[in-house]
Amino acid sequence: MSRTIFCTFLNKEAEGQDFQLYPGEVGKRIFNEISKEAWSEWMKKQTMLINEKKLSMMNPEDRKLLEQEMIKFLFEGHDVHIEGYTPPSQ
Q: Name one Pfam family in it (predicted).
């Protein structure tokens, strides 16, 4: 059963997550405000960040950096800056 939420990232009604994907207060906020589509956008950015910066999910500092980037991307309207990555032209 899919749930519809108002996605603050897309600024429209969209399909919400099936369950909370991220722990804590940030996770609750993502569950309530971030659609599947927006989350998948973030997942692409996260993968690029992990690869570019050689981040390890075992490292608390790396996880903290990713969380900060995620919050900026999903809630504050900042795009993720990837060194040497040029987005394809629209």
A: Iron_traffic
Locate 4 and state its tokens: 């519809």
Q: How far is CA 36 from CA 5, 9, 12, 31, 69, in A?
A: 10, 11, 12, 9, 18
| CA distances from residue 40 to 17, 44, 59, 72, 75 in whole angstroms, order as listed | 11, 6, 23, 15, 15
Q: What is the pLDDT of residue 77?
A: 93
**DSSP reduced 3-state for 14:** strand
Separation between Cα atoms, residue 45 and residue 55, nearest integer Å: 13
- This prediction has a pTM of 0.86
Question: All domains of the chain, ordered by start, with CATH?
Answer: 4-75 (1.10.3880.10)
User: Which contiguous run of DSSP H or E holds residue 71?
Assistant: helix 60-75
